[in-house]
Design brief:
It is a single chain. The chain has 496 residues and is an alpha+beta fold. Helix content is 28%, strand content 26%. The strands form four sheets. Strands 8, 11, 14, 15, 16, 17, 18 and 19 form an eight-stranded mixed β-sheet that branches. Helix 5 packs across helix 7 and helix 10 packs across helix 11. The chain is globular. The C terminus is likely disordered.
């Protein structure tokens, strides 16, 4: 008998070990959900990875033990008694109405192997400060000429404006502008259709164009909004390993993304990022008069509010002339801490904000233990919900708006690749919506998924594998248990 124990997420609640028997009709399972939630079966919308469970068949929903099923619907007592207009239930909505009700972004039509661009556009859209910078740009698209950077910046701005209306969009103008600026993206295969392209190359080229045209905020000294909110700065020292008589070479290097190199010893993102800070190189030594081994070491001196990490999963195979993929499983966290990758001076600057976060964490755990009796798990959930609070403390240094003042980040977008080569297969964007609910943006199909499903995109097989990770600022809510005037219930957590 095919019986499974699954988890069901309904709003903020998660029901554990719910038994589902696929030998029985789905209505039996929906009756169980009614008993758990009070939501009538006809108002339930039950989904697993975008597939919707019908009343008559399990064919579209493939269960397994431990799977997270998403249920939407409203129980009787929460319904409006006298609605101003006739209530329309989720299960009765068409694609446009459902997208609006769930606050889902618009999908992007695949115009022929253009998933690499669609996934890039969806992930970049999660940076609100970029959206704001695009609205400040006053140029227009000119397909018959004009500057490539002007055209691409205007095309992306206009595309996001159209997407905000909630309908599936054919990104024809954006694609045309991209092809004009970078003809290699317009290459066609033997069948006449567009060839698949590398999504990271698309990401880098789009950022380079935006870097030239987006303006920073008034208080910033950076040259562009891209450098202000995405720019990483590192101190670099290159020292000859074969002689002490040669002075080390010191410099400052700037990046728009951080690379995670993957080898046999890298199992976690943190390890790969640390490996990036030290490397052996061979170059000519003026002291020795020959090629020699050098050790190059780096330390981060400026962290941006949003940090993009490229998982270096592709290497060029000369014989086959393809960018072959490294399938190794490398785990990545929801909460990223970049403190260890920073210089000593930078670490000292980060400590004040980190101290406030530590006090906030301790308060969350104390509240969860005394009030709800659920300890650290409930505390973590409380903090995740706080990330969506309306009012937060500044997450940047006052003299560098757009930087990170704590080194703490929260995962907000993942761009994945499915296949064995960067120039084949399929790309998908996964973006955080709210709390632990994410959206899978697979071209024109946008569907809700749980955060647990996103963390499984770490590699190890032919399934979707994380290629680009976008982390945003971890936010400290302004209201976090501080003592109110005339009250002695909670402890004042604010530090001077």
């Amino acid at each position: 008998m095919p019986s499974f124990k699954i988890k069901v997420k309904w709003g903020k609640e998660v029901f554990q070990d719910v038994e589902a028997n696929t030998d029985e009709e789905p209505m039996v399972f929906k009756a169980q959900l009614f008993a758990l939630t009070g939501v009538q079966p006809e108002r339930q919308k039950v989904m697993l990875k975008g597939a919707i469970l019908t009343d008559s068949s399990w064919d579209k929903v493939k269960l397994r033990d431990g799977a997270m099923v998403l249920m939407m619907g409203t129980k009787d007592e929460d319904m409006l008694v006298q609605p101003v207009e006739k209530t329309k239930f989720i299960e009765d909505m068409d694609e446009r109405e459902l997208s609006k009700a769930m606050d889902m972004p618009a999908g992007l039509q695949n115009l022929g192997n253009t998933c690499y661009m669609n996934a890039t556009v969806q992930c970049l859209k999660t940076v609100p400060e970029l959206r704001t910078a695009l609205t400040r740009f006053g140029g227009n698209v000119s397909l018959g000429g004009g500057q490539d950077a002007d055209n691409l910046t205007a095309a992306l701005r206009d595309l996001y404006t159209t997407m905000d209306k909630g309908n599936t969009v054919p990104p024809i103008i954006m694609l045309q502008v991209l092809h004009n600026a970078f003809p290699r993206f317009a290459e066609r295969g033997e069948g006449g259709g567009y060839q698949q392209q590398d999504a990271n190359e698309c990401w880098v080229e789009i950022l380079r164009m935006l870097q030239a045209k987006t303006t920073p905020t008034e208080s910033s000294t950076k040259a562009s909004a891209i450098e202000q909110f995405l720019g990483i700065e590192c101190s670099s020292e290159t020292k000859c390993a074969e002689t002490e008589g040669e002075e080390p070479t010191k410099s400052v290097e700037k990046f728009l993304q951080f690379s995670c190199y993957i080898d046999k010893d890298v199992k976690y993102l943190h390890t790969g990022l640390k490996n990036r800070l030290s490397e052996n190189i061979e170059k000519n030594s003026p002291t020795l008069g020959r090629d020699a081994q050098y050790i190059k070491s780096m330390a981060i001196t400026r962290l941006p509010g949003y940090i993009t990490i490229q998982m270096v999963r592709f290497h060029f195979k000369q014989k086959e002339a393809v960018n072959a993929k490294v399938l190794k499983d490398v785990k990545f966290p929801v909460m990223l801490d970049m403190f260890e990758m920073c210089s000593t001076e930078m670490q000292d600057r980060l400590r004040p904000a980190r101290t406030q976060f530590k006090a906030y964490e301790d308060w969350n755990v104390e509240q969860a233990s005394t009030v709800k009796g659920k300890g650290k798990t409930e505390a973590l959930r409380a903090e995740r919900e706080a990330q969506d609070a309306d009012e937060n403390e500044d997450w940047w240094f006052s003299e560098d708006v757009g930087s990170s003042n704590s080194g703490y980040y929260i995962l907000q977008a993942v761009l994945t690749h499915k296949g064995r080569s960067s120039n084949s297969g399929h790309y998908v964007g996964w973006v955080r919506q709210k709390g632990d609910t994410w959206l899978k943006c697979d071209d024109d199909e946008v569907s809700p998924v749980h955060e647990e499903d996103v963390l499984k995109l770490s590699g190890g097989g032919d399934w979707h594998t994380a290629y680009l990770l976008v982390y945003g600022p971890r936010k400290l809510p302004k209201v976090r248990g501080q003592k109110e005037a005339g009250s002695d219930v909670t402890e004042d957590m604010q530090t001077s």
